[in-house]
Amino acid sequence: MEAWLKVTNILGQVEVARTIAEIEQLVGLGPVAPVADAVHQHQTVEVTTEAGGERTGIRISPVTPANDVSDANPQPLFDYIVDQLNALKLTYIHVIEGATGGPRDNAPFDYASLRKRFKQAYVANNGYDVALAEKVLEAGAADLIAFGKPFISNPDLAERLKAGAPLNEWDKATFYGGGAKGYTDYPTLKATEAAE
Ligand SMILES: Cc1cc2nc3c(=O)[nH]c(=O)nc-3n(C[C@H](O)[C@H](O)[C@H](O)COP(=O)(O)O)c2cc1C
Asked: E strands along 110-168, which residues?
């Protein structure tokens, strides 16, 4: 299935990308969240797939300073963006709360406002552990929680969370390494127990 990104730039010119590589080329960015970054550049973005908006989600980072994408006034900007995304009937928005991989409270932002505006699923990410995930889910502040680093270091994360089992620590030294090391070689709980 091909991804589609249609960008109307501020001159009114429409450009279309049909593959991830073309999307990256079109928005002139590296592989990190190109669609969200395009939104951030105040361009009108329309995302569809051959399967339709109901099978498409989008990840946004309202206040992360990563890759210099931060905005001076993110609240009205992202309220507006989420209203537009809502109209596309996407199946979820995935929201990085705070600075990606850093503090969750680096800038004031009302995430509940996004949740209220978007009628489909709200996926929360950034710095969640089980306790915070359960608290946020129980409060109804998110529909789903996404884990990054805990999933890299625990191939059986879901099983471990269900069982209340301890988690493997992640090794920062193998992040962004370009190879399999640190991505496919963390042990499952079963493997650790068998080795003991
Ligand atoms: C090794 C590594 C690679 C990542 N690659 C990407 C990426 O390509 N695109 C992206 O949007 N986020 C990427 N992230 C950010 C994660 O998706 C996630 O937002 C971040 O780790 C915060 O979630 P966590 O606290 O659960 O780890 C990456 C994170 C790590 C540690």
From this structure: 121-125, 144-146
